Amino acid sequence: MKKITIAIDGFSSTGKSTVAKQLAKALGYVYVDSGAMYRAVTLFAMQHQMISKDHFDVKRLVSALDTLKITFKYNDTLGFAEVYLNGINVENDIRTLEVSQSVSQVAEISEVRRMLVLQQQRMGEEKGVVMDGRDIGTVVFPDAELKVFMIASAETRAKRRHNELLERNEKVSFDDVLKNVESRDMIDSSRKDSPLLKAENAIEIDNSNLSLTTQFEKLYALAQNAIEHN
Ligand code: CDP
Ligand code: CDP
Predict the structure, then answer these.
(1) Class of domain 5-221
(2) C-alpha 61 to ligand 2 mean position (Å)
(3) Sign of the dihedral defined by the CA atoms of residues 100, 102, 103, 105, in that order
(4) Taking every annotated instance into account, which residue ranges of this chain make up the domain Cytidylate kinase (predicted)?
(5) Which of 53, 65, 93, 167 has a 20 to 30 Å separation from 41 between CA atoms?
(6) DSSP per position, 92-157
(7) 37 CA distance to ligand 2 centroid (A)?
(8) Does residue 107 have its Cβ closer than 6 Å to ligand 1?
(9) β-strand 129-133 against 80-85: which pairing, if any?
(10) For residues 52 and 134, which has the higher predicted lDDT (pLDDT)?
(11) Which residues line ligand 2 (CB under 6 A)?
């Protein structure tokens, strides 16, 4: 059967990666978490003291980009590909609130975006890919056969993310998580290079009141329809 490209964009913690993983599994496609790549660059900048709460040495990060290798390796037990930074598995280290608090600043840098977008486009060359992020339907795969744009209220999203962090034993307050979600929404939507916006032909889904199962069923039906008509 003909393979298509599926682009899932939207705000933080709308359930993009959860549904993208489920879709990829159901269709036998590759799942790519583009946000993990921006998070890995951010972790690199933090590890090399290029970024902290009140300081960001953009020049030093840009000049170090060619020393930075981001790869994915499929984990059979987890059922998805984990992200590696220069050969080291950083799948857990990139999900902390600390990384979330700097990632949108890193994602504003055009040199970073250029490098990651090229790599993302290469990963999708043969189609059969589900990729989630902020600019997948607008910049990375403007010709994707199915584009979805996910939204949900900030409160709902912060609650979801807060629960996730608590489950991972990261003791953070709900208020800090909400602040982070709102601040990333703002930076991601207003940056000059590839801002977060709904592609013209994207289908918007508000999942504030959708269960994971209903959300998956909706997207699976959309994917089947897109595959049949392309
Ligand atoms: O999981 P969550 O929605 O919180 O974020 P993510 O998908 O891991 O993305 C983290 C950050 O990376 C976003 O807030 C954006 O600043 C940036 N990002 C981006 O600019 N473009 C993408 N395609 C994916 C992520
Ligand atoms: O990738 P993104 O940041 O958009 O979100 P995610 O990591 O897939 O989902 C964030 C959290 O919200 C996860 O714990 C999901 O299980 C949860 N979620 C939910 O409870 N109900 C939904 N309809 C969507 C997501």
Answers:
(1) alpha beta
(2) 31
(3) positive
(4) 6-223
(5) 167
(6) TGGGSHHHHHHHHHHTT-HHHHHHHHHHHHHHTTTS-EEEEESSIIIII-TT-SEEEEEE--HHHH
(7) 18
(8) yes
(9) unpaired
(10) 134
(11) 12-18, 132, 160-161, 164, 207, 210, 212, 215
**Ligand 1 pocket, residue 35 CB under 6 Å:** yes
Tell me the C-alpha distance between 120 and 114, whole Å. Answer: 10
Token reading at 144: 């994707």
User: Tens of pLDDT along 27-69?
Assistant: 999 999 999 999 999 999 999 999 998 899 999 999 999 999 9
Rounded Cα–Cα distance for residues 36 and 29 (Å): 18
For the chain, first and last CA: distance in Å?
Answer: 10
Q: Please state, in angstroms and rounded to a whole number, the distance separating the CA atoms of residues 20 and 222.
A: 13
pLDDT single digits (tens) 85-120: 999 999 999 999 999 999 999 999 999 999 999 999
